[in-house]
Design a protein that fits this description.
Blueprint lengths: L2 E7 H4 L3 H16 L8 E7 L5 E2 L2 E2 L4 E8 L8 H20 L7 E8 L5 E2 L2 E2 L2
Length: 126
Amino acid sequence: MPHLTVHLPENRLTGKEPMLVAALTDAIVDVYGEWARDLVSVRLVGVPAGRFAQGGKAVDTNASVILGVRAGVFERPDAARITARLGAGLTDAIARVAGEDLRPGTMVELVASPPERTFVGGAVAM
């Protein structure tokens, strides 16, 4: 189950939530296929002004995307292509909805979870 946590400056997020959720979901579906749409979980976190910093200075042009994926994605023969598409697609979604000037400051992290360490509703997610 792909799950995303996205941190954006609050002033870049407010009012754009539905468009951003749709764009991020579409980015995942573009890589995994339509079967994944109902499994994509998105959490948007607005960061108040002055609480996003780069180089010791407050900025409003950074975004952070953490995508939890199954560890097996990194063992596939096409892992480099898949992960590159995820990073580019999620960055494109952020830039398209929240502003192109966010592109250079958008960081996408793919965090791997072995199947036995992912739980939904208190049970191991298969």
